[in-house]
Amino acid sequence: SETERIYSKYKNTIEDNLEEAKKDLEATMQLEIDAVQNFDYKLFINEFNRIVENHASKILDYKREHNDLAKIAFLIEIPISRVKIIGFDLNLQEEAIKGRVFPITKSMLEMLKKLEKKIDYIIISVMHENYKSVAYCVYAFDCNKSLKSQLSKIYYSFTYKWQLSPFIGKVKLKLVK
Question: Are 85 and 102 in contact (CB under 8 A)?
């Protein structure tokens, strides 16, 4: 979708804006590359925890401001790259994640349990970066039930397949004519 945006922006004026179009395209592609090659699960889980704790700290405020609410649900959006994900199960065995699945980890589950008896539902929407409108996958948890029991599998962590490649170094994109 980002490539489509760039195309639409320059399609009628490409002759006069070739360098700008090239820079926009380069920057968009580099963001995708950086998202994968710089991915760090510990940073991801820290950010996930920050978001959940931020939601949790506002529960009483939400209830006070909206005392007529019948139910409270939290939506957590997770942007991911289109590159294949590798999950590590609880025995630390690698597993290629196939289909429209996102590896919910033990650490994520532990953080979500802090919300379990305080709200009614937790929705996790996993989106590819620069998505248009359709989620890659969605998890909906009923907090009146055990969160763990609502998952078919729990992972220890995950990374992108590219990070497990045998080469060492960083990719820096440079488009040329």
Answer: yes
Q: Please state whether beta strands 121-128 and 85-89 pair in parallel, antiparallel, or not at all (unpaired).
A: unpaired
Alpha carbons 152 and 145: distance in angstroms, whole number:
14
Could you give the CA distance from residue 64 to residue 73 in angstroms, rounded to a whole number? 15
Give the whole-angstrom CA distance, residue 135 versus residue 161: 21
Nearest to 86 by CA among 102, 110, 108, 109: 102
The whole model's pTM is what? 0.71
Q: What average pLDDT is seen over the chain?
A: 83
Say if residue 88 is exposed, middle or buried (CB neighbours under 10 Å; 0-12, 13-18, 19+). middle
Is the CB of residue 51 less than 8 Å from the CB of residue 92?
Answer: no
Residue 173 predicted with pLDDT over 70:
no
| Comparison of pLDDT for 10 and 53, the residue scoring more | 53
14/107: higher pLDDT: 107
**Sheet harboring 94-96: ordered strands across?**
94-96, 85-89, 155-160
- Name residues whose C-beta falls within 8 Å of residue 171's C-beta, 6 or more positions apart in sequence: 33, 37
Two tokens, residue 52: 């959940």
Long-range contacts of 137-146 (CB under 8 A, 24+ apart): 137/100, 137/101, 137/102, 139/102, 139/104, 141/112, 143/115, 143/116, 143/117, 143/118, 143/119, 144/120
